[in-house]
Specification:
single chain, about 500 residues, alpha+beta, seven-stranded antiparallel sheet, about 30% helix, about 15% strand, globular
């Protein structure tokens, strides 16, 4: 083992010990509304036979291997044997050259591959059968070169639909094990590495915005594997009240991304309630978690820790302080849900920005386990570290309200509509509820709304979000999430 690697392991161990010490000190946190613990979240493993509306982005182990990794391995092996394997795309070649020329990152990535393969060797025999290649080798990633070859294949593929818990996010399927290793946790939390990785994600984004990405929206072969216009996709609600034209290729969309950000037909989602006192949900989500009496700053990375306003707002203390002692609602989106965001109220948009962040970072010490395959359990943590858009609105009687759409894994691009960008110190934008303010690209993710203390009484389904996690359908866009408290009406 090299001295460099020994030094890294020593520093990593010291860091983890310090974080554990911080967690001991964190015991003074006040109690909050009951919610499912991180242990319970981590223990909830996606079932590959589960119905699609449960919303899992990441497949169960068998699906990750059988549907993505094994076919990719086999495709690369066939091309190599036939001497037809194409060269690395410029973005992948540049990424590989960058990693190779920086010894610390090459060390982390190589260690991540070794740790991933060691993990799959520890699995039971039935799982191993899903992973072994034609030569009988049980490897997640064959070697250093193979890592980049697989990336090269993946960024020229489109996500697939399956009528199960699997929603077809191929890059996450590939990285589900590596991102949970000790070296993977270090690598995917590194800001410099993430800047380079973002170039790869941008290349994939460009592919998903091209006409080549319409292969799974082919009206001449609607039942092909992974098709988003198959009978199963229709049954799962992919097209419920969504704009489309069955007579045109791609259902009238010019790329997979334009399909993914499709709109509802006119009138499908009316905004309910009285705009003078009611606040609407601005993103169609399945309820996940509620918390009140929010703290300005917490050790959010510690298991079962509360939300930290300062970190949710990217260190912008002047905005975070507005919500101290307030309430928070978080929901999640699956790949088949509506992926646009709409203004939740009549009033002013006083500030908005995109906060850069991580893409494949898992909570420190989460390590391997069921949560490796289920990022839904990591949603509270991701709200503090992942790339996200942040909107702050002002309502005449409900006060300040924040809306934070958060990217998960490759679902990392949050786009604010140009006329909805409000820089620090700029004049507020007058806004009406239902106005289109932005959208996710590459997929969906999770979403947070934050309310000031004693301003709004939230709806039952929001306060008891944990009890509604298995609702068969998401809460419709435009539903009333909160009403101004009685004393505010006088």
């Amino acid at each position: 083992m090299s001295y460099v690697k020994l030094a890294y392991i020593f520093l990593a161990s010291v860091t983890l010990l310090l974080l554990e010490a911080c967690s001991q000190k964190h015991g003074e946190q006040r109690s909050r509304e009951p919610y499912t613990s991180q242990h319970e979240l981590d223990s909830r493993t996606p079932d590959p036979t589960e119905p699609a509306q449960t919303g899992f982005w990441v497949p169960a182990r068998e699906w990750a291997t059988a549907k993505y990794l094994v076919p990719i391995h086999e495709s690369i092996a066939r091309k190599k044997a036939a001497n037809t394997l194409p060269p690395l795309r410029p973005e992948i070649a540049e990424f590989k050259d960058w990693v190779t020329s920086h010894s610390v990152y090459r060390m982390w990535l190589t260690s991540m591959i070794d740790e991933s393969n060691a993990y799959v060797q520890s699995l039971n025999d039935s799982a191993k059968k899903e992973i072994h290649n034609n030569e009988g080798n049980i490897l997640w990633i064959e070697n250093y070169d193979s890592f980049f070859e697989m990336l090269n294949e993946i960024i020229a593929t489109t996500p697939s639909f399956y009528d199960t818990s699997m929603k077809g996010m191929p890059l996450h399927s590939f990285l589900a094990v590596p991102m949970a290793t000790e070296s993977g946790v270090a690598l995917f939390h590194d800001a410099v590495f993430n800047q380079q990785l973002k170039k790869v994600l941008n290349a994939w984004n460009a592919y998903l915005k091209s006409s080549e990405s319409l292969d799974k929206l082919d009206i001449y072969n609607p039942e092909k594997e992974g098709s988003w216009i198959s009978r199963a996709a229709w049954k799962a609600g992919v097209w419920d009240q969504m704009e489309h034209d069955k007579t045109r290729q791609g259902y009238g969309y010019d790329s997979w991304n334009s399909f993914f950000t499709r709109k509802f037909v006119t009138g499908a989602r009316p905004f309910m309630g009285n705009p003078a006192i009611d606040i609407n949900i601005g993103c169609e989500t399945v309820p996940w978690r509620y918390q009140d009496n929010l703290a300005l700053e917490t050790k959010f990375w510690i298991k079962d820790a509360d939300y930290s306003l300062l970190d949710l707002f990217g260190g912008q203390k002047q905005w975070a302080e507005l919500f101290e002692g307030g309430q928070l609602y978080q929901g999640f989106l699956s790949a088949k849900h509506y992926h646009r965001w709409n203004a939740p109220l009549d009033g002013e948009l006083v500030r908005s920005w995109v906060q850069p962040g991580t893409y494949y970072a898992q909570r420190i010490k989460q390590k391997q386990g069921p949560a490796t395959w289920n990022s839904i359990g990591a949603q509270p943590y991701l709200g503090h570290v992942a790339a996200r858009a942040i909107f702050i609105f002002k309502h005449k009687t409900a006060g300040y309200i924040a809306l934070i759409p958060i990217g998960m894994v490759e679902v990392s691009t949050t786009v604010i509509e140009p006329d909805m960008v409000v820089d620090e110190g700029s004049r507020p934008v007058n806004i009406s509820r239902g106005t289109d303010i932005g959208h996710f690209e590459l997929g969906g993710s999770t979403y947070i709304m934050v309310f000031q203390r004693d301003k709004v009484k939230l709806a039952e389904w929001a306060v008891n979000a944990a009890k509604h996690r298995n609702d068969p359908k998401p809460t419709p866009l435009g539903s009333v999430i909160g009403t101004v408290t009685a004393h505010e009406n006088h």
